[in-house]
Amino acid sequence: MTTQQMLSYMRRGISQYNLIKDGDKIAVGISGGKDSVTLLKLLAEYQRFSPEKFELVAITVDLNFTDKKADFTPIKALCDEYNIEYIVEKTDIGQIVFDVRKETNPCALCSKMRKGALYGVAQAKGCNKVALGHHADDLIDTLFLSMFYEGRLSTFAPKSYLDRSGLVLIRPMIMIKECNVVSYAKTLPIVDSCCPANKETRREYIKDVLKTVGKDIPNVREMVFTALTHPDRYNLFDRYEREKDLF
User: Fold this and answer.
1) CATH classification at residue 45
2) Rg of the Cα trace of the chain?
3) Cβ pair 173, 13 in contact under 8 A
């Protein structure tokens, strides 16, 4: 998939959910993986012709795992190509999660601490928004994670306000499928994950479940995405509670 094709999907999401406004200073969270690097590349390209004038700051929260250290110099080179400031925030999150706390389900704590560090740097740099590289399939996977492990019907929004920090969190790739990200990212400088739990998470399990379902229902992800993003497809018990006395 070409940059122009990827941008067409991203522009649709930005426009539909009003994600970027004139004068924004956006911190782009960069893990080094395919999703975040694709987001950085697309936002840098979009910045060139966007009707809204905005700034970008790329921020990596270095989790500092004990056994393996990540090399973010390829990300620095990409940022230099687009004249984007790049910050690597050193932390001990990896050691706290795996060596000190020895978490059996490390993702939840790691995500909370990583986001806290990211938001702190974004505030210090004067940003008013933070962009994350979640795509359409992440939206779907999060729904099933919430149902299976928390008993909740919940997923993330394309845009949300963070009360504690005063930042606005945006997800510009909300309408891009993961398969397109995978294809596009082959040309980008991806940093291999150093996380000991990589590919062994609950999210990976959900992906495997939906892949199995997809053998019988090939368009299962499209159907779930449609159900999530079209209000007219919604029909759960809270609607009954609102209407039970009408008839």
Assistant:
1) 3.40.50.620
2) 19
3) yes
pLDDT digits (tens, 9 = 90+) for 177-221: 999 999 999 999 999 887 777 777 889 999 999 999 999 999 999
> Which amino acid makes up residue 18?
N
Beta strands at 129-131 and 167-170: parallel, antiparallel or unpaired:
parallel
- Residue 33 in this model has a pLDDT that exceeds 90: yes
- Count the domains in the chain: 1
0.90 exceeded by pTM: yes
| Contacts within 8 Å (CB) and 24+ apart, 12-15 | 12/175, 13/158, 13/171, 13/172, 13/173, 13/174, 13/175, 13/176, 14/46, 14/172
Residue ranges making up the domain that contains 12: 3-243
Distance of alpha carbon 182 from the chain centroid:
14
How far apart CA 218 and CA 105 sit, in angstroms, is 31
**Closest by Cα among 19, 74, 42 to 180:** 42
What is d(CA 238, CA 61) in angstroms, rounded to the nearest whole number? Answer: 40
**130 in helix, strand or coil?**
strand
